[in-house]
């Protein structure tokens, strides 16, 4: 059975449907990119996958020994975090929360786990630094380490490169690719269709037309063609405008 | 000066005031960090106005033990206010403003219409600024205060990690299976208890100072959550102690003296933070 299966999903707020008829499945080791225009329901889908929201119709099934709370999550940064006095160690350790059950404090095993994930993300030497002083890329790696503490199996990434400069963006993508090759299933929301096509194994395009399938099929499909053309057009427009840095 | 102090400390009400003052300062500073970081600094203020309204009702109904009305009303208001964080119909800050001025107005209205006291202005003033009530504490009130403080501190220590997780990133915490609603509720209830307790010490207008100043001062000096929490608790206790001492010696009102010292401490911490190069 697949790790996550979505059946006839309809999503939205206050019974107002944003997107419907979603069918897809994620298997162990996949790298799924969820693309679509702003407002097409990408974030809503993410929240539903994390069981932060109930779908209006349909359901999400988890299988293959995956519990609903074993999904690691890399959220977009919130305003609150920008001046939050917390050390890197504290933030990463808070990812172990789900493992505690009713135990109020972290065990040695969880502290070890946090340590090994900091090493994995190469932020061990930052452990006593304050989260708010770090650069954008470092902050993302801290949050990634925290997400890894919550899961061994699936990572959900919400726009992981938004606001990062091109060099750090490339590093971030490489890091995610490395995690994927180590056996962690990746589900990523992205605006960045070029990167999606480059790294993902599967693509879910949501919007007026819904597409789900492998990357190769996506490139041949009509939403894929349209999306790529739009992107190219926009990027050219921007480059002429002199900014050129689309995230 | 020492003689004067020893003389004063022979009176039990002075000792009670000191004990209660320090305990309240400790409790209020603990959750201050969370409130400031969750952008709820003003909630203390709003809730204290609600407590004021509730107290007016209790006074009109001539309850001897006003806590019976004040505590539940304030707890309910706290739950409503923290809930609106997620509700988008009326934004959180507008809601706080509405509830606080509304209950303030009704409270004063009730006191004015039904009051039996000859010195109404004095009564209102002392509820607002806590000028005398801390010196009229009975042993029973001190005990209640001590028990509630112990409960607040115990809850805070036990749920420290979860409070951190919920404050830092509520969505993430929920995604990994923490029952964030439950902890928000817990935070709301504890805040309400602290507010009702602190009304005795500083009066309803000055409570938010006790809640936010130590936290803000500590955030100037330290960069991780644990140090900030410990530092704000220590600062708050020191300021309350000094404030009470000074007010005894100089005959100034207790509440405003404590808050003045808190402000002073904040200024010092700001300067120290600049030198140390921490923070924003």
Topology:
The complex is a heterodimer of chains A (247) and B (280).
Chain A: E1 4-13, E2 16-26, E3 31-35, H1 42-49, E4 57-62, E5 71-74, H2 88-93, H3 97-100, H4 108-120, H5 136-150, E6 154-158, H6 166-181, E7 185-189, H7 193-199, E8 202-205, E9 211-214, H8 215-220, H9 222-241
Parallel strand pairs in A: 3-7, 3-8, 5-6, 6-7
Antiparallel strand pairs in A: 1-2, 1-4, 8-9
Helix pairs in contact in A: 4-5
Chain B: H1 2-9, H2 12-37, H3 43-60, H4 67-83, H5 92-114, H6 120-129, H7 139-158, H8 160-168, H9 170-175, H10 180-202, H11 207-221, H12 225-250, H13 254-276
Helix pairs in contact in B: 2-7, 2-10, 2-11, 2-12, 3-4, 3-5, 3-10, 4-10, 7-10, 11-12, 11-13, 12-13
Class of secondary structure makeup of chain B: mainly alpha
Parts with pLDDT < 50 across at least 5 consecutive residues of chain B: none
How much strand content do the residues of chain A show? 15-25%
Rg of chain A computed from alpha carbons, rounded to a whole number of angstroms: 18 Å
Q: What's the helix count of chain A?
A: 9
Number of helices of chain B: 13
Q: Outline the low-pLDDT stretches of chain A.
A: 241-247
Write up this protein:
The complex is a heterodimer of chains A (247) and B (280). Chain A is of the alpha/beta class. Chain A is 38% helix and 22% strand. The longest helix of chain A is centred in the last third of the chain and has 20 residues, at 222-241. Chain A is globular. The two termini of chain A are 35 Å apart. The model of chain A is unreliable at 241-247 (pLDDT under 50). Chain B has 13 helices and no strands. Classes of the chains: A alpha/beta (247), B mainly alpha (280). Chain A binds chain B through residues 47, 50-52, 69, 71, 73, 75, 78, 80-81, 83-87, 89-91, 93-95, 97-98, 100, 104-106, 128-130, 132-133, 146-147, 150, 156, and chain B through 37-39, 158-162, 164-165, 167-169, 171-178, 219, 222-226, 228, 278-280.
